[in-house]
Design a protein that fits this description.
Part of the ABC transporter complex LsrABCD involved in autoinducer 2 (AI-2) import. Probably responsible for the translocation of the substrate across the membrane. This is Autoinducer 2 import system permease protein LsrC. This protein has a domain of 209 residues. It is built from 13 helices and 2 strands; from the N terminus they run H-H-H-H-H-H-E-E-H-H-H-H-H-H-H. A two-stranded antiparallel ribbon has the order 1-2. Strand 1 and strand 2 form a beta hairpin. Helix 2 packs antiparallel against helix 10 and helix 2 packs across helix 12. The two termini are 25 Å apart.
Length: 315
Amino acid sequence: MTKIFEFNKKTVTALAFIVLLYFIGGISVSGFASPHAMMQMLKFATYIALFALCQLLVTCTGGDIDLSVGYVATLVAVLSAQILKGSNAQLWKAVLIAIAIGGVVGLINGLLVSYAKLPSLVVTMGMTSVVQGIVNVYSSKYGVTGAPAPILATIANGKVGIVPNIIWLLLVVIVVATVILQMTKIGVKLKSIGSNELAAFRCGLNVKVIRTCAFVASGVIAGLIGLLLLGNLGQAFKDMGSSYVMPSIAAVVVGGVSLKGGEANYINVALGAMVLQTLTNLFVAYGWGDAGKWTGIGIILLLMLILYVREKVSR
């Protein structure tokens, strides 16, 4: 029987690394390991983990990446802020906009990657520029105004006890995503294509359609994350989602997921997001700024890639 929640060596490694970072931070920075600081880390890591789900879906089917997710979220947030104007009454419209924009962008990405055989890096980079252009034109003409619905603000910033609501939401997403990816035909098909595309095709799977659907799902999820970002920040602004793109890819790598496809352990990916955010918090506490943060994350990525390659060679 397939294990739903698979805890392997990579899971233990990620958890151990988080503990190590908190041990270092706890003895070197006052208040770094306090419950409040940990909850804040988890809150920020949640958004990386959610964007990383987008990356996991497209990586699973054959090592693709989706660079457009950040600006999909931004465009949805900018449009939704003006529609919502601080009211719950129009929330359904904002949700439809998120699904529509994310779905259309994902569909275009998927068609170009699956049917035109273009590299996902090139396709999604180009789509990023297109969506960014739309955001800039719209913002210049209409401005970036409005406010999130109170429901979104509650989800993003409310708490149950000391635990932010957004963390509870992530836990639900982890459970649902893990069940789908590990226990359903959807997950089996996605991983089959990533493991061996030719074998999957010979078994009757429509490889192109399934890969396209993975990009559509990535876009839709990114659109919905845009609503959460709007609720978290209280307003929309240009580039609000772009800073999550590289960390979301990094979370997949740090989580130990194969970049060649065929793997879909979202628990490890979420832990990878927590590793990155803990590392970021530590660098900020040391006063190293963005330069130090990205240098550190880059070093971690290189180390993970080296370990990944060595593991493959040893096999």
